[in-house]
Amino acid sequence: MKIDFHRRQFLQQAALTMPALGLIGLDELAAQVAGNPEGGAPFPQDKKLGVALLGLGKYSEEQLAPALEKTQRCRLAGIITGTPEKVGKWKEKYKIPDKNIYNYQNMDSIRDNPDIDIIYVVTPNSLHATYTIRAAKAGKHVICEKPMATNVKDCEAMISACKAAGKMLSIGYRLHFEPHHRTFMEFGKKQMYGPVQKIVAENSQEMEKGVWRLDRERSGGGPLMDLGIYCVQGAVYSAGANPIRVSAKEGPKTDVDKFAEVEQSIDFQLDFPGGAMANCRTAYVGKGNRLRVEGKTGWYELEPAYEYAGIKGKTSQGPMGIENVNQQALQMDDFADCVLNKKPTRVPGEMGLRDVKILMAVYEAARTAKPVDLKL
Ligand code: NAD
Question: What is the pTM of this model?
Fold first, then answer.
């Protein structure tokens, strides 16, 4: 990965502070930040793994399919859809042969199709479990979108099904392949600005009426399931530890019709071992997109923090100057690399399960108005 001038300068600054703290140096940090399969010798075209996208909504159409044109170790080989009208457009645009096009009735026969190695589940949240389990039973590796499922039991069943089938399972946590966030993970692990004391995370955006995200049956909950999960993730990797306690308070509903089934907003606090605390907020009204970490000797923050592009970072030492990347392409290439080389993924089903446990604890804390202890 290319390191631009500002980024190198930032990494240099970071490295300068690190030896005193007994931490890593510039090259090691750069290597860890860049830890993805970009670059190197060209990957042979015929060895690329075939990905079938299951659920051809906005995220598949606008992010994943275009990203699959940029991947080096995998390619868009098939589609699985319940909407026959979508087939023509996808078939033509991505040159998908008829034999690689499935619907939800015949998808189990994908087992006999050697063109497909990985099924990427991109449906409403409550369907993730059903399709992940069917994909694994059909002998395919699985990437499943976040949140992994709408309850803990489903997450466990998904992990078991993939294990039983001898197939790998990863969650679509794209930010684990994004260099600003990878830097935050590294800072969290090494407590680079002294012990982390406070984290502030917000992810809020307006939600239109009439969508499955407002329907509890299909979403499992409101902004917490959809957007707040990024705050949970950011807080956990910034703290470098799992939370031990959660408290939460649901916000008032200004539109009771729209938010009849799910929360409009929720504020929650995660407590970490050693005393670090994360104050998080997520809402389907207003706008907020931020991750800030305060350590004993300095601070660092991202704003916007969770977007597909345009993430900007600064620290108490100055701008981070890190370039943006195609997150989804790196995420899918990394999974293909893990499958090809039998390496564990850094975003496994177990991480998805952990996060769903945290999300459920946030809801419980809000419902009971009492802190909930976590044993993760
Ligand atoms: P969307 O509404 O645009 O698409 C959902 C797709 O699922 C549609 O093609 C729809 O036809 C299909 N579907 C199948 N069964 C359905 C049912 N019973 N009800 C409604 N739709 C059904 O949603 P999206 O934004 O593409 O989100 C899909 C998944 O991807 C969600 O789990 C979401 O959390 C996740 N997502 C992740 C990211 C990310 O950055 N990682 C971004 C957006 C969405």
Answer: 0.92
Read off the DSSP letter of residue 126. Answer: G
pLDDT of residue 11: 57
Residue 21 pLDDT exceeds 50? no
All CATH 3.30.360.10 domain ranges in the chain, comma separated: 5-34+179-324+347-373
Q: Answer for the pair 187, 293: CB distance below 8 angstroms, yes or no.
A: yes
The span from the CA of 140 to the CA of 205, in Å, is 35
| Ligand 1 atom with the shortest distance to the CA of 212 | 20
Gap between the Cα atoms of 300 and 220, Å rounded: 33
Q: Is the pLDDT of residue 10 over 70?
A: no
CATH of the structural domain 5-34+179-324+347-373, one choice from 3.40.50.10490, 3.40.50.970, 3.40.50.720, 3.30.360.10: 3.30.360.10
pLDDT tens digits along 28-47 = 444 444 444 445 567 887 78
Annotated catalytic sites, by residue?
Answer: 146, 230
- Pocket probe mutation, ligand 1, options 145, 205, 219, 282, max atoms within 8 Å of Cβ: 145
Ligand 1 pocket, Cβ-based, cut-off 6 angstroms: 55-60, 82-83, 122-125, 127, 145-146, 172, 174, 212, 218, 226
User: Taking 90 as the threshold, does the pLDDT of residue 154 lie above it?
Assistant: yes
Task: Quote the mean pLDDT of the chain.
Answer: 92
DSSP E strands in the chain: the ranges are 49-54, 74-80, 101-102, 118-121, 141-144, 169-171, 196-204, 245-250, 265-271, 277-283, 288-295, 299-302, 313-315, 318-319, 372-373
